[in-house]
Amino acid sequence: MSPLSALWAALRVYAAGAAVILEQLLRRCRGGFPEPVFAPQPDRVAIVTGGTDGIGYSTAKHLARLGMHVIIAGNNNSKAEEAVRELKEETLNVKVEFLYCDLASMASIWQFVQKFKMKKIPLHVLVNNAGVMMVPQRKTRDGFEEHFGLNYLGHFLLTNLLLDTLRESGSPGHNARVVTVSSATHYVAELNMDDLQSSACYSPHGAYAQSKLALVLFTYHLQGLLAAAGSHVTANVVDPGVVHTDLYRHLFWGTRLVKKLLGWLLFKAQSSSTCLGGCLFLTPPESTGIHLNSTHQEREHLSSRCPGIR
Ligand SMILES: NC(=O)c1ccc[n+]([C@@H]2O[C@H](COP(=O)([O-])OP(=O)(O)OC[C@H]3O[C@@H](n4cnc5c(N)ncnc54)[C@H](OP(=O)(O)O)[C@@H]3O)[C@@H](O)[C@H]2O)c1
């Protein structure tokens, strides 16, 4: 990627963000987001990656409130202990626990799955939520560019290692679910097949958007395979919208200033039940391969889009 195309990638990402903010504001003016009401789900088990903070934490809380056994997969022991304590207190659900999983390390993902499988419990919902955004150029433990390695490859491996348990846990009318968190930036992303690691010219915007597009394509493909095999597992992808979280900490200072001053107005609250928590169950169990956008409209079906690959 040349410096000019890096600049172009940044402009496209900011334009996508601005479009989502506008959509959110319009939606608010028209009466806001519906508060979803869900039936209790006491016998179900969920894993939420990055459940220690932001949208993941909010999602874990929703699931715990429904009575689910929630396992938070994260890479910060002390933060996770605090999150688990708070979640138990706030939801009065004692079935909330933490298992260490560094999504930036393939070895750690394998160990996480091993520990999870030793519990001999089913898995009904896998929320691929953890992520980093627009970090300076750096690599995962395995040498991958961090956005691509953590956001995409980490979740790709995790999902594949857990698929057998998901398949065993789904049943007719009660599909197990893989819910993957994308971002509207994927609409303006390009997959640079000649340089997936962005090693020639690094653009944090381009790399983030590329990792999110890769997740969308992975979900579409996974859903195709699951449907072809007649399995009782669905794969869906959601955009949470523009949400007031710490994800923006690596952005240009001007953007952080705008967020600090106007975040309350322009961004969704991370505690909003209409972020991911809402999206999770708004799709009926038989929904497959759909892409929910930040205002919960079914944006497209998996077969309707073929994003450009460069
Ligand atoms: N906020 C938005 O406006 C927005 C918009 C579109 C999409 N999203 C997507 O939503 C998801 C959640 O983002 P957020 O806004 O909630 O951000 P956040 O508050 O920064 O939360 C990110 C979570 O991911 C975890 N994480 C980071 N690196 C990890 C690793 N190596 N292994 C395991 N966990 C790791 C973080 O744990 P630590 O805090 O311990 O690092 C944290 O729990 C991301 O995939 C993001 O791309 C967010």
Automatic annotation (TrEMBL):
One of its GO terms (molecular function) is oxidoreductase activity. PROSITE patterns: ADH_SHORT. The keyword Coiled coil applies. GO terms for biological process: positive regulation of autophagy. Keywords: Coiled coil, Lipid droplet, NAD, NADP, Oxidoreductase, Secreted, Signal. CDD domains: retinol-DH_like_SDR_c_like. It is found in: Lipid droplet; Secreted. Its EC number is 1.1.1.441. Pathway: Protein modification; protein glycosylation. Residues 1-18 form the signal peptide. GO terms for cellular component: extracellular region; lipid droplet. Residues 70-97 form a coiled coil. InterPro entries: NAD(P)-bd_dom_sf, Sc_DH/Rdtase_CS, SDR_fam. It catalyses: a di-trans,poly-cis-dolichol + NADP(+) = a di-trans,poly-cis-dolichal + NADPH + H(+); a di-trans,poly-cis-polyprenol + NAD(+) = a di-trans,poly-cis-polyprenal + NADH + H(+); a di-trans,poly-cis-polyprenol + NADP(+) = a di-trans,poly-cis-polyprenal + NADPH + H(+); a di-trans,poly-cis-dolichol + NAD(+) = a di-trans,poly-cis-dolichal + NADH + H(+). Its main location: other. Belongs to the short-chain dehydrogenases/reductases (SDR) family. Oxidoreductase that plays a key role in early steps of protein N-linked glycosylation by mediating two non-consecutive steps in dolichol biosynthesis. Acts both as a NAD(+)-dependent dehydrogenase and as a NADPH-dependent reductase during the conversion of polyprenol into dolichol. First catalyzes the NAD(+)-dependent dehydrogenation of polyprenol into polyprenal; polyprenal is then reduced into dolichal by SRD5A3. It then catalyzes the NADPH-dependent reduction of dolichal into dolichol. May also acts as a positive regulator of starvation-induced autophagy. This is Polyprenol dehydrogenase. It comes from Sapajus apella (Brown-capped capuchin). The gene is DHRSX.
